[in-house]
Amino acid sequence: MMIEGLIAALANIFLQPTRFFALVMGAVLGFLGGATPGISGTMMVVVFLPITFGMEPGTAFLLLTSIYAAAVFSGAISAILFRTPGAPEAVATVLDGYPMAQKGKAGEALGLAVWSSAAGGTIGAIILMLSAPMLARVALRFSSPEYFALAILGITVVTSLGGEDVLKGVMGALFGLFLATVGLDSVTGVERFTFGSPHLMSGIDFITVLIGMFAIAEVLRKFQEKNVGQNLKTKVVTKLPDLSLMKRLSGLIARSSLLGTFIGVLPGIGATTAAMMGYSEAVRWSKHPEKFGTGIPEGIAAPESANNAAAAGAMVPLMALGIPGSATTAVILGAFILHGIQPGPLMFQYQKDLVYTIFLGLILVNLLIILLSKPFITIFAQVMRVPYSIMGTMIVVFCIIGTFAVRNSIVDVWMMLAFGVIGYLFDKAKIPIAPIILGLVLGPLAEEEFRRSLILSGGDYMIFFNRPISAVLLILAVLSCFMPLFSTLWNRYKKKEAHGTISS
Amino acid sequence: VVDLVIAGSALVFALFFWLLAGQIPRGRVVAGLGASFWPVLLLGLLAFCAILLVIRTFRKRKEVGKDVGSAVTNNDDSSEIAYPHNFWVTLVLMSGYTYIMTIIGFVLATPLFIGLSSWIMGFRRTKFLVPISLLLSLALVYVFPKALSVPLPRGIGFFRTISLFFY
Description:
The complex is a heterodimer.
Chain A: H1 2-15, H2 17-35, H3 41-48, H4 57-82, H5 91-139, H6 144-155, H7 158-161, H8 166-179, E1 183-184, E2 191-192, H9 206-222, H10 243-265, H11 270-285, H12 298-313, H13 315-321, H14 327-338, H15 345-350, H16 352-383, H17 388-407, H18 410-428, H19 434-457, H20 463-466, H21 468-503
Helix pairs in contact in A: 1-2, 1-16, 2-3, 2-4, 2-16, 3-4, 3-9, 3-14, 4-5, 4-12, 4-14, 4-16, 5-10, 5-12, 5-13, 5-16, 6-19, 6-21, 8-19, 9-17, 9-18, 10-11, 10-12, 11-12, 14-19, 17-18
Chain B: H1 2-22, H2 37-66, H3 86-104, H4 106-120, H5 126-147, H6 158-166
């Protein structure tokens, strides 16, 4: 059945020029977003999300997932050429990529990044294709209590997304959940916190918050910095690794990709951690760990295959269960909702075409990474000369167009600007933005399923614990909440033990 | 201090909306829960977290007080900021663009905004500025209102007539 689905998806992509164009366009935009420091892949998805509103879902999701996957790879370009990771996922690539470029092997370093990213991304996408339908079949047995528990589990991801400060992450998620309550109550039909404004009756559009808090806040911050265009003096020609090097790295790439996919599936950990872990595991397994950091191929192949695999892995919980595993997948979840699609088990039954189109898109984008990266890198060296004064201005224009396009409302644009200021202030106060978006996106699901469950049980709260799946999910949510506390206690215990050993 | 401001703001926010939640009509009460149950629960949790933040801040202060040597404020962000006034300038530019767009329309407001913003933010190659602003605006008009049928504001009166020439 999967093969049939994939063949149909293949025909859908190649026989419909708009879909194919969306895939290619997404890859180019993703390259640009990921490679340009100051514009992340998430921001690129956010900016282009409203524009997909007028597209049919297949085209829209090919564009968005293609941007998402390509951006993870292209962060490596500026990491290698300019020692500035274009995206956080490429932090580990700097360690060996830049020294390799310094040795005059920038082309080889870029070729390695292209090859390992494409290999990692393909392995991740294949695992996604095999595991997501299985997980979705289990999820078919879910009812309201399980969905509520799932939403709560999704929201507790903030303990990881919240960065160092879990408490502020939780506060951010509660703020997002609260924002989701504005508008007409879906159960009783009464108005909540609308201040009598007809505009707020349908709630606060999540795109307004998303664009404001991610993109506008970033522009407000970047415009205060000293920004100059990067200038590359030498011409770079990307060279893919030769067969012997590919063979030498194949085991490492396979191992890092599996590790990356697994980390990607875990909620809230993401591709950046996957890249760092891929790198450190490569050091651990290496016979010459001392050579890492001096510009060796292994130091590029490991993080690049891990982060691209993790990006595909993060799509597993999103597609099978409808809970996002990272900030960008939270945005993609929002895109599904915008198109009137609820990702999760039912999507595998009623939107098979779309599911297989996304799967295939995630595989094909890796082919595009190999094919398009070479010309892109040549052009990119020129694009990097464009100063942020123009780039930032254009981002503002895109944000305003994107927000206006959703409901043709200038009030939404004003709200987006206000959320931009709020996002900027939150950033200053070190309150993470991703939990707010997660709360806003998962809020309606959590509230509706919570109330629906209590209607089913006649007001008995034990319904959440009497059902095994719901109970397990809630226990997992509680455990994930206390995970940072456990790890702090564990670290303290280890420190004490080490201190005891030294003093004795 | 920042954490105390956050906690204080969160408490005021929670209290304000808690009071507003009291005014929400009860409507149809289902399984013992009215329309205000969920938001009140969230606001309660937010207030609880804010109180935890206050406690944590005071505990940290005490710890820092004990160890005077470590009482160094971590202000690593400020070193990156070269033009702090640009925050307000950007805000005025964006607000101005949004307001003007409703009057003179997207077609005329966009090149003005691109040119002005790029110039103020440091792009001083004047001979390139005008063609860049015009070309980028034309490309945007072609892609969004024309190709993607995004109905961007056309402005009012005479300006609307001008916009109608384009889309």
